[in-house]
Specification:
Layout: H1 26-52, H2 57-80, H3 86-91, H4 95-113, H5 115-121, E1 125-128, E2 134-137
Helix pairs in contact: 1-2, 2-4, 4-5
């Protein structure tokens, strides 16, 4: 999806990369490992808190999976911001990004709210009440 990003303004004025240099620098690899470890820590924290609160296996699985999907989408958006400001990024068109975000969120919604898919993934059903509270029940 990053291939669909428009090129940076100075791309033609920069010297080419040395072909003998590694494609990924140690800094890039380290940063990506840090990002992955951060997502893992967040997902494990949600898992642990859910179990600590006494939520059942299905509720814990649902919360953990949802957190994993949202965290990965957040990583995509955060990495997209690196070369530009947030305003410039939001003004830049990227059709592939919207397809990925829309597809992932649609799939997440389908798995959470379609009984057949919910049972395949062994998820619980979250009822949201107008007062803003959520009540969980296993279906």
């Amino acid at each position: 999806m990053f291939e669909a990003e428009p090129e940076e303004a100075d791309v033609m004025t920069r010297p080419p990369r040395n072909p003998l240099d590694p494609f990924f620098s140690w800094r890039t690899v380290g940063l990506n490992l840090l990002q992955g470890a951060s997502v893992l820590a967040i997902v494990l924290a949600v898992f642990a808190v859910s179990l600590f609160r006494g939520q059942g296996e299905l509720e814990t699985r649902t919360l953990t999976f949802t957190t994993l999907i949202v965290a990965n989408l957040d990583l995509i958006l955060a990495n997209r911001l690196w070369p530009r400001t947030i305003v410039a990024t939001l003004c830049t068109s990227n059709t592939a990004l919207w397809w990925v975000l829309g597809g992932a969120l649609s799939f997440l919604g389908l798995t959470l709210y379609t009984p057949v898919l919910r049972s395949v993934f062994h998820f619980s059903f979250e009822e949201v009440y107008p007062a803003g509270g959520a009540h969980s029940r296993t279906v």
